[in-house]
Amino acid sequence: MMSASADLRNASHSAGKSLASETLNNPVAIPPMPDYSGRMLAYTASAVIIIVGVVQGAFQQWHLWLVAGALIWPHVAFLLTRRTFLRHSPRIRQKMLMADCVIGGGFIGCIGLVAIPSASVALMLMFSALIIGGIRQWLIGCGLMAASILAFFSIFGPADSFQSPLLTSLLSILSTGLYICVTAFYSHQQARALMLAKTQIQNQREQSIALSHKLSKYLSPQVWQSIFTGERDVRLETQRKKLAIFFSDIKGFTELSEEMEPEALTELLNHYFNGMAEVALKYGGTIDKFVGDSIMVFFGDPTSRGQREDAFACVSMAIEMRKHMKIMRQKWRSQGIKTPLEIRMGISTGYTTVGNFGAENRMDYTIIGKEVNLASRLESIAEPGEILVSYETFSLIKDRIMCRDKGEITVKGFGRPVPIYEVVDFRRDMGPNRSFLEHEHSGFAMYLDSDKISEKERHSILSALEDAAERLRHEEDTIRD
After folding, report:
1. Is the dihedral of CA 305, 310, 312, 317 positive or negative?
2. Where does the Guanylate cyclase domain lie (predicted)?
3. Distance CA 478, CA 472 (A)
């Protein structure tokens, strides 16, 4: 007959261990009633019932021997569960309660089913079983208790009277009530403390999520997700993979930095990086780093769609970045930035070493290898607005993207000259059916992507173009006159 509160703690043992670890060694104090104390309370109450019953003649004299057993058993149970090999037995507390049910049933059978004392002992046993293991434990306990009652009742027979004297009945009821009240109080205290612990852990979980999202800003989303989902361990390790590597920088940025104030230059650069990062993530690129006005992105790790698709996604990203740069340039011009800023890009595809580099306490997830150097070199020799790709990249994308042969270059680390190509545009956008048009002059800039224009926007654009054309014709007629 164990303490209900102690059993509630035992039933949630694993959850309690998890809560304690999550609260970072600062758990909410949970005041459970120990198994030993609960069992002592229950068996002492039973001993009092026996003594009073014997004094009042409700029980036989030899039942006093049960008092000795009731007072000794809690100590024996404590030694068995804490000082012997049984302490390592799974669900040992539940098993000890089943032993209590057998002992309690034996006591009820010995006293010949005297009504109120028997009901009091049975009630304490069922109360403990229900709290420890729920309906399943309660049913098993009731079954064992019933079997024990029948076995001992068949041996010792019924009592002379199933009714007990008034004092015996009152003490039986009071003892059971005291046991239930004390264990219920501890169960309430424990449940309250567990709720406080749950609230504290929930708050810490929310703080951890908020902190992880802040830290994710310093990592590429793909890398961050693979770490926080457990797919990747945070340790110094690398692997060889075939990746598509992208480099870009802004032509004219150095001159612009000499003309603008640092605050305005920082705002412009962050606006540029934010726009380009959105494009990179749209195509599934892993953003490696921002250095000055340069961007480094690679495709194929942590996730890959295959070499051909990775290369195509990388070049598609570069084409959209080039288009996006035109939109940005128009906005900067409207803000008074006259320096013509152009993006230049280089892409190569090949085997690189990718993973965590650095020290155990400070790592950097990046890539190294001669293909990285080739992409950087292609970016450095590209003309403003130009996308240069290596032969390996060209061979993977040539069926979907139009490229122009640009000859060969010599690159350190490569034994022979490297053929390079200039990306023109998607083949689907070439010819009269192309959706993308652009035109720039001093005082005029047009960027048109018809696939992204809605019906409502199309009418507005047509109206603006007609107004502009009418004005230009009027000015031309005026000049002629």
Report:
1. positive
2. 244-379
3. 10
The pLDDT of residue 14 is: 39
> Exposure pattern of 444-473 as b/e (b: 16+ CB <10 Å)?
eeeeeeeeeeeeeeeeeeeeeeeeeeeeee
pLDDT of residue 254: 81
Q: What is the dihedral of CA 293, 298, 299, 302, to 10 degrees?
A: -120
Q: How far is CA 222 from CA 166, 284, 302, 369, 383, in A?
A: 76, 8, 6, 21, 31
Task: Domain ranges for the chain, please list them.
Answer: 4-211, 239-434, 436-481
Question: What is the CATH architecture of 239-434?
Answer: 2-Layer Sandwich (3.30)
pLDDT of residue 28: 41
Nearest residue to 273 via CA among 316, 321, 315? 321
Residue ranges in the chain modelled with pLDDT below 50:
1-32
Backbone torsion region of residue 348, taken as left when φ is above 0, otherwise alpha when ψ lies between -120 and 50, otherwise beta:
beta
Question: How far is it, in rounded angstroms, from Cα 406 to Cα 378?
Answer: 11
- Residue 158 has φ and ψ, to the nearest 5°, of -80, 160
In tens, the pLDDT along 290-332 reads: 888 899 999 998 888 999 999 999 999 999 999 888 888 888 8
Q: What is the pLDDT of residue 423?
A: 93
